[in-house]
Amino acid sequence: MAQEEPDPKRKKELEIIAENCERVPAKPARTYWEALQTIWWVIVGCWIDGGPISITPGRMNTYLYQFYKRDKDEGKITQEEAIELMECFFLKILEGGLFVWADVHESIPNFLGGEAYPRHGFLQPISMPVDYREGLIKLLALIKTYMDLGGSHIQFNCVSGETLRDAQRHPEKYRDLVVRVAGFSAFFIHLDKEVQEEVIKRTELRFD
């Protein structure tokens, strides 16, 4: 594909993509781009094996930052280029519906299109960076791109650890509190105490 590409910039991008795919995940990632490619290959493998329902990238800001910082310090990537790569990654995540099991397709007609479930995709839980301003820029870019591509519905749950703790003490006040568990959402007060603690532990982030 790269050999037939007339645009020099796009040709270079395709060559880098080919090099990344040749290296990872068999060998350790060396750059931010290679690290993102590694995550994508691992996710695709998990989706093929068991479906996209409970596979998420998790705290990407934690394990990607070292690659981003090193590449930026060495002049290999700009912040704008890093954001563009992350946006492309988010778009690929939305393709999770293509990996739904065959029996799910049979039980839910038109799962990938049609009247019942038009333009169905999966929005995976991904933690935002500690620098909330950078995180908001990426989040807004994701929402805009999703809607520009025909998305019709999107939902975000933002809740503090303090609120979740209060819900444990006073469940009658939080009957409508919904949280993300592991590939699905549930009413917080209906979860077992052990699961509630796990949700609080892995979802509480501070934007200092």
Can you offer a commentary on this structure?
- The chain has 208 residues and is mainly alpha-helical.
- It has 2 domains: 2-148, no CATH class; 161-203, no CATH class.
- Helices cover 51% and strands 3% of the residues.
- The chain has 8 helices and 2 strands; from the N terminus they run αααααααββα.
- It has helices at 8-23, 32-50, 60-73, 79-93, 102-107, 132-148, 161-169, 193-203, and strands at residues 178-180, 185-187.
- The chain has a two-stranded antiparallel ribbon with strand order 1-2.
- A hairpin with a 4-residue loop joins strand 1 and strand 2 (185-187).
- Helix 2 packs parallel to helix 4 (79-93), helix 4 (79-93) packs across helix 6 (132-148) and helix 7 (161-169) packs antiparallel against helix 8 (193-203).
- The longest helix is centred in the N-terminal third of the chain and has 19 residues, at 32-50.
- It is elongated.
- 13% of the residues are buried.
Helical residues, percent: 40-55%
What is the strand arrangement across the widest sheet? 1-2
Q: Which percent band covers the strand fraction?
A: under 5%
Helical stretch count?
8
State the shape: elongated
SSE ordering: HHHHHHHEEH
Q: How many strands, what sense, and barrel or not for the largest sheet?
A: 2 strands, antiparallel
Described by its quaternary structure, the protein is single chain
Overall mean pLDDT: 77
**Number of self-contained structural domains:** 2
First CA to last CA: what distance?
45 Å
Number of strands: 2
Q: For the CA atoms, what is the radius of gyration? A: 19 Å
| Structure class | mainly alpha
Low-pLDDT regions:
101-123
